[in-house]
């Protein structure tokens, strides 16, 4: 893969992770109301804090880097996709957990907070996975159409 393709993939993955996380965090804030301000450092009066947005962006960048590293052709050829996905999921969860402790995103001694985090993480992961599958299917269809057109042209020569 060329460096241009890697940069495009990095930007896309960062955008998807960041947008999904910010959307979910914002929706939680809308439904929870002002009560959540005292519960999580994500929220301030009027919405999501700028500090939290930057933290989520950094986490999205790290997530994109992990995905690019583990989606490299050399690894994909040697390791099952399921194992790569599980390793990526574990690493991202580990880093997100570190962010929770470092930035005090929520009270770490509350079970409900962890249940909410896991639920939110899974929602984000599922949305990102669905988006990735849809993009892959669209590209596969485009490639199949191009291959069909190429075969038709090659047969006419």
Key traits:
single chain, 157 residues, mainly alpha, two-stranded antiparallel sheet, 80% helix, 3% strand, Membrane protein DedA with SNARE-associated domain, membrane, transmembrane, transmembrane helix
What can you tell me about this protein's structure?
This protein has one domain (3-156). The relative contact order is 0.10. It has helices spanning 3-32, 50-70, 73-78, 81-103, 111-156; strands at residues 43-44, 47-48. It is elongated, with a radius of gyration of 20 Å. The protein has 157 residues and is mainly α. A hairpin with a 2-residue loop joins strand 1 and strand 2 (47-48). It is 80% helix and 3% strand.
Residue stretches low in confidence (pLDDT < 50, at least 5 long) are none
Q: Share of helix among residues?
A: over 70%
| Helix/strand structural class | mainly alpha
Enumerate the strands of the largest sheet in spatial order, edge to edge or round the barrel: 1-2
Number of domains: 1
SS summary, helix count = 5
Shape: elongated
